[in-house]
Amino acid sequence: MVRASKVSQQKSPAEFFAENKTIAGFDTPAKSLYTSVRELVENSLDAAERVGVLPDVSVTLEEISLERFQKLYGVEASERVDKGLYKDVETEKERNAREKKQKQARDRAEKDAKKKAAKTGESVEDILRRQEAGRKAAATKSRRVFYRLTCKDNGSGMPCDDIPNMLGRVLSSTKYNSVMQTRGKFGLGAKMVLIWSQMRVAQPMEVRSSIAGQNFISFHRFNIDLHKNAPVVREHKKLQNPDNWTGTEISVTIEGNFGSYKQKLLKYLKLIAIITPYASFDFRYVAEDEKNSFFHSYTRRTDRMPDPPREAKHHPSDVDLELLKKKIAGSSHKKLSKFLSGEFSNITASLAGRLVTELGGADGARAKGKGNIDISPKQMTDTQLLRLHQFMQQVRFADPDGKDLSPAGEYNLRLGVMKELNPDMVATHEGSAVALEGHAFIVEAAVSIGGKDPAIEQNQLNVFRFANRIPLLFEQGNDVITKTANAMKWSRYKIGLEQGVGVFVSIVSTKIPFKGTSKEYIGDNDKISGAVKKALEQCASQLRTKLAKREEAKQQGEKRKNLELYIPDVSRAVYGVLNSLKDHDSARSRCVRDAHVGILDRVKRGKLLASHFAGELEKYVDKKYQEDGLQYQMQNKKKNRVEDVFLGPLSSERGLTPALSNGVCTIQFLAR
Questions:
Q1: DSSP letter, residue 5
Q2: pLDDT at 367
Q3: Using CA atoms, how far apart are residues 305 and 124, in angstroms rounded to an integer?
Q4: Residue 221 and residue 233: Cα distance in Å, rounded?
Q5: pLDDT of 176
Q6: Is the distance from CB of 225 to CB of 264 less than 8 angstroms?
Q7: For 380, what's the count of Cα atoms within 13 Å in the CB-facing half-sphere?
Q8: What is the pLDDT of residues 367-418, one digit of tens each?
Q9: What span, in angstroms and rounded, lies between the C-alpha atoms of 66 and 142?
Q10: What one-character-per-residue DSSP string does 480-516 give?
Q11: Is 594:601 a contact under the CB 8 Å cutoff?
Q12: How far is CA 126 from CA 23, 102, 200, 394, 437, in A?
């Protein structure tokens, strides 16, 4: 019988998340490797965007085999004496069972290969050879492998003395007390990477960082004391910075499985490049076997970066009692009305006065001779605070307007989709701000058709989701975006899934309603679903117009092609008739007008041949085709908005001259 401990025990935040790492996306080695790359990349983007710098992010993943890892860190395997202790040593019973199972698998594989060969004509040997290669690859994926992960950026950098606490103390973040659109919210990202590393390989994290105006690079090597939730600095020094570099470079050794999550990781990088076309990404994989190494580069396509999000005030409808107490404790306002209008959004000075008056009347303060309730918030009793909180929940406040949000923008979303996927056509739409539980959110959408990129599969709806400019790759079937996109009647817009349809939806908000701390999907919500549907319908309507124009152009082309097919026969026939009339004066007078007599004379003298008629007919068809096309464009000009096309310079260092516009296009030249 196990007796329960009578001593009350506590766990630090670091211990809690180390034991429950799956809620932050760290479960298997393969998933943990993917999550580690993602967290470091997103931290780098935040650091660059925070100071208005176009992000340059470089990721290097170096494979370290178990043998090399043991040699590097001095844990080389000793000679085995009692081999029965090791789980990778088979007993005779286990070996017999394995050999029997392998024989049965080979027999089944040969039988299936013969059936397949009979259908496809492929040789049985080739089929078996391919299956064996697949089994070897699967066995390779199950090996224990380690990686050196390095992520470098050109962002704001971190102050020298703050680095250990910023990355080595769980649940410490500058984001907790702010209402702001951010990629991360829980302050776990890089700290969970360090915890994962510490639990599997017990190696410290290395950080190099420099801030603007600092003439050295700060270098730290540290771990986390899980029990105390505090950093343990192993080494700290200042390095030379001859290039005046600013940014951060984080290196950490972790256990992982790149083979299992290679496609997932590359898909993540492609999607992050789509939603941030103003950023540059380099990904280098260094394998133990050099022939398996590779390098991917996602180049910057624009220098137009969205305006950074701004910190917003709390909306009064989203304030709980504890937050209200916390804001009062940190406030310097002497009047309740000043506190309400100064600390919360959507409360003007006049509205604050009305609220205080109504609150006083509701409390019956004046009737009891207690005076005006517009007192200092810090003097309010617990009962008054409770009444104030309940009163704020009953008042109808205006919704937040979303002016503090930073969507990617239609230009960037369209450019990202075009540069990475190269579709045949794409439509975009940015919706207006909508409020959810006191937080504004904006939905942006793009729908693409066609293209040769393998990310777009035929005969299905390819849905790509983003939240605060983070690609969401897991739990797709449970996400409200996927459900809404699949529920749409795409055939109403003449869009067939066989065309290869890509749906891209990005949601930005000061509070994304994620399910779980790992930020993998957004739960069902009628307001979000409605906003997503509206944005997708706008995109689909644009595409329907584009498809109609393309079909009209196709029909015009077919019409022209059909006319051109008859030109040789018609020209020969006309020439033959005229040629037969040239020597018959009586027939000529009956069939040819006086104005056209000269044509017969030219035919008679050999100056007018069938080829001349063919040339004139070709000119007529060409002119008719152009006139019909122009007429179609003029008819549709008023019905459809003209799309804006932007061509920007590669460098933003030079200014532009005033815009010159003629109603068709606008041109700006680079200033001298």
A1: P
A2: 42
A3: 56
A4: 6
A5: 59
A6: no
A7: 30
A8: 444 445 678 898 888 898 899 999 988 999 888 888 999 999 999 999 999 9
A9: 12
A10: HHHHHHHHS-GGGGT--GGG-EEEEEEEEESS--BST
A11: no
A12: 44, 19, 41, 73, 60
Residue ranges in 276-317 assigned as alpha helix (H) = none
The per-residue pLDDT for range 623-644, each reduced to its tens digit, is 776 666 555 555 455 444 445 5
Q: Which of 247, 219, 237, 220 is nearest to 157 (CA)?
A: 247
Contact (CB, 8 A) for 84 and 178:
no
Give the C-alpha separation, 313 to 450, whole Å.
43
Indicate the SS3 state at residue 297: strand
The single residue listed with the structure tokens 């997708």 is 536
pLDDT beneath 50: ranges in the chain = 364-371, 635, 638-642, 652
- In our burial notation (b when 16+ CB lie closer than 10 A, e otherwise), range 316-327 reads bbbbeeeebeeb
Q: What is the pLDDT of residues 260-306, one digit of tens each?
A: 899 999 999 999 999 999 999 999 999 999 999 999 999 998 998 99
Dihedral angle computed from the Cα positions of residues 89, 91, 97 and 100, in that order, rounded to the nearest 10 degrees: 80
Would you list the DSSP string of 71-140?
A: HHTT-PPPPPS-GGG-TTSPPHHHHHHHHHHHHHHHHHHHHHHHHHHHHH---HHHHHHHHHHHHHHHHH
Q: What is the pLDDT of residue 99?
A: 84
DSSP H helices, 216-367, are 258-275, 321-329, 336-343, 349-363
Q: How confident is the model at residue 62, as a pLDDT? A: 96
What CA–CA distances, in Å, run from 526 to 83, 109, 487, 522, 531? 62, 50, 14, 12, 9
For residue 640, give the amino acid letter.
N
Distance CA 387, CA 389 (A): 5
Q: What radius of gyration do the chain's Cα atoms show?
A: 35
CA dist., res. 342 & res. 332, Å (int): 10
How many CB atoms within 10 Å of residue 498?
9
pLDDT at 540: 95
**Three-state SS annotation for 421-464:** HCCCEEEEEECCCEEECCEEEEEEEEEEECCCCCCCCCCCEEEE
